[in-house]
Design a protein that fits this description.
9 strands, about 190 residues, globular, about 20% helix, 3 helices
Length: about 190
């Protein structure tokens, strides 16, 4: 009877160990209530990010958002290559809320070289529009793993440490591991 009991308990124990040590699926954090795109547009500086392949060896990362005539938000990302010092216009795209009832849950489309679009989530979790913004995207892979992106943005090249700590705490409280974020170099950018 003991071996059968142990056998039946193994999946439960294994699942509990996995939950504590591996990110299972995506969290469902709250997004900014009453998000107003017209107040959000303008230039944002990347303060911290979860590293993603398309941002390797970059510093001085900025995102400029503009309202477009078609009602969408134009997205213009810019960075400096750390090795060459050259300015990279990384990508231009458009953002829009698929559900107007939840305007902070945006989709972003970036054109590819073969005339198609890469589409991803861009959820504004929190912003005061004038100082900081917290952006998150997550794709669940079979409900077992997640591929996530997160950015802390600011209207200036720096944020006070207490603000960064507050935002990291906000992420952790909402199931997003702030320890995965790395700080972005915003020095010698001009």
């Amino acid at each position: 009877m003991k071996p059968l009991c142990l056998l039946l308990m193994t999946p439960v124990v294994f699942t509990n160990v996995l939950k504590k040590n591996v990110d299972l699926g995506c969290p469902d954090p709250p997004v900014k209530k009453g998000f107003q795109a017209d107040k959000y547009v303008g230039t944002w500086y990347e303060i911290a990010k979860m590293p993603v392949p398309f941002q390797i060896n970059q510093k001085c990362v900025t995102a400029k958002y503009v309202m477009k005539d078609n009602g969408r938000i134009g997205v213009f990302n810019r960075a400096i290559d750390i090795e060459s010092g050259e300015i990279i216009i990384a990508i231009e795209g458009e953002a829009y809320p698929p559900d107007p009832e939840v305007p902070a849950k945006l989709k972003v489309e970036f054109p590819t070289s073969n005339s198609t679009y890469n589409t991803g989530d861009y959820w504004v979790l929190d912003t005061d529009y004038n100082t900081y913004s917290v952006v998150y995207a997550c794709t669940s892979i079979g409900g077992v793993f997640r591929r996530e992106s997160c950015w802390i943005l600011a209207r200036k090249r720096t944020l006070p440490n207490e603000t960064i700590d507050k935002l990291f705490n906000f992420l952790d409280t909402n199931g997003i591991n702030s320890k995965k974020l790395t700080m972005t170099n915003q020095i010698n950018c001009d």
